Amino acid sequence: MLVNNKKMSDVVEATSHPMPIKGRSQWQDAMRRFKRNKAALISVFVLVAMIIISFVGPTFSQWDYETIDWSLIGNAAEMGAPQIENGHFFGTDDLGRDMFSRVMQGTQISLMVGIIGTVVAVLVGVLYGAISGYFGGRIDNIMMRFVDILMSIPYMFILIILFVMFGRSVYILFIGLGLFSWMDMARIVRGQTLTLKHKEFIEAAVAAGVGDFKIIVRHIVPNLLGIVVVYTSLMIPNLILLESFISFLGLGIQEPLTSWGALISDGAKTIQYGTLWQLAFPLGFFITGLFCFFFIGDGLRDAFDPKDR
Amino acid sequence: MFSFIIRRSLSSIPTILILIVISFALMRLAPGSPFSTDRGLPPEVLANLEAKYGLNLPWFEQLFIYLKGIIIDFDFGPSFKYKDRSVNDILAQGFPVTLTYGIWSFVVAVAVGIPLGIAAAVRHNTKLDYAAVGFSIGAQVLPNFVMAPILVIIFTLWLNWLPGGGWNGGQWQYVIMPVIALSTSYMASIARITRSSMLEVLHANFIRTARAKGLPMRSIILRHALKPALLPVVSYLGPAFVYMITGSVIIDIYFSTGGMGQFFVDAALNRDYSLLMGVTIVFGVMTIVFNTLVDITYAWLDPKIRL
Questions:
Q1: Is the ipTM of this complex over 0.90?
Q2: Rounded to an integer, what distance in angstroms lies between the CA atom of residue B104 and that of residue A180?
Q3: Contacts with A, B 244-283, CB within 8 Å
Q4: What's the predicted TM-score (pTM) here?
Q5: What is the pLDDT of residues B159-207, one digit of tens each?
Q6: How distant is the Cα of B279 from the closest Cα of chain A, in angstroms?
């Protein structure tokens, strides 16, 4: 009896002070699935390494990205090849500027354009889509019709016209690219909002007298974050591609600043002189960087939406 | 179906008008005159020039004249920089070139991409499938401005098979590289979308029924699976067309083909507003017309849309 009593009291003890059960949030689940994806995980490390190198690398070089090495000028094709002795690790460009520093500089700018442009696009797209989906009806109709119109215009041309008009500063590039890429995000967010807004917790918030704007910001948007994260990670490489496209035409970033697209363009113009390194190094960074972003994006999509595989 | 086509076509007209008004407004807002040079013109000369091109009129009158010119006479006005040529002349010179390799690229991307995607889905998890997936992942990072120099290195500098640029009246050697450079990444996207939607359709219940009835695989795919599997591909064709049109600018610049892209970039650098507007509007109208065709095709494939 005594033993049994002991057992009983143990059970009572154990159940009356229940251990807090650890729930797993959607984010923890997603992180676990993401970590199992080898390609995505390796991409994260490569990308972080690339970012660190692009900021730390230039301090190890004796040349900066705009100084011309006068001892090589006019003879870059023969003497500008990559070598350790004169400090041009990646060789020099056509004008005798150090390619290593320029590639680092270009990497910084391209990544920055991708990330800042995406932030602008995500902010606009999420708010626009959430508002359109939440209010529905005629407002939704008008707002989505407007998106349709914007999407059926070859906006690259309008964007280039804007650059011509307002001058070509880096900030215009950041904001311009972002402002022309939010439409897809707005559509996706609107679709999700339409399914969310009839859920009970939104009804509860409405019944409790919470204002429309507060419901959108506090209750709708946080529930959209999973899908927003996935599309954001896929948007960054696309914006980098867009910026490279414009810079390749010579209409984007301005000298002496540079970006992957501008470097590839310069390298591509001189290949007939046999200066392959001027194309190969920027192209290598460009391809590696884009691959990393695409793999991370795919990994995040699989992690947040396993049924979509 | 007929009434859907009429309705869809009518609804593209306001889009075209909005496009024209937007590009007109941008030009009006642009700071500086197209005639301002480094040396600076005397004010009387400038006033005369502006009067010649109608720039001294109020903006709504200019817009009206411009719209009337386009709609009634299909006239985009004179070029501001090339004094003796009208925008129409320049369009007539550059447009056929762009259209030639543009249509070829589109045809190649669709004609290779869709069968590749179908084959990969039907032979799921075989070597063919892996090769197709590898190609479509790899081509994501090979946009036209990367493909173009790589192709020139291989086929012009190393193998010496093809000319590295020029157009030469559209002789086939001059068309091959622009078409490959422009179509590769879209071909890959089309193959990837076709493969994943085909895989999904092949796992659907109605396909299992068809197989249970003992239909041969060939007719299952062609008669039952293809139509629903192509829906996502068709809706991708609209954006792909827009990307190709913008990509043609790169091709024109890199291969010096003398198409519209060259004129567009020159006009952007020269602030030749009337030419910029002309190119933008022609490309925009093409996009809108193409999107209308895509929507009609979509409705033909998916009867649920025709409401």
A1: no
A2: 28
A3: 245-246, 249-250, 253-254, 264-265, 268-269, 271, 276, 279-280, 283
A4: 0.81
A5: 878 777 777 776 778 888 889 888 898 899 899 889 988 888 888 888 8
A6: 9
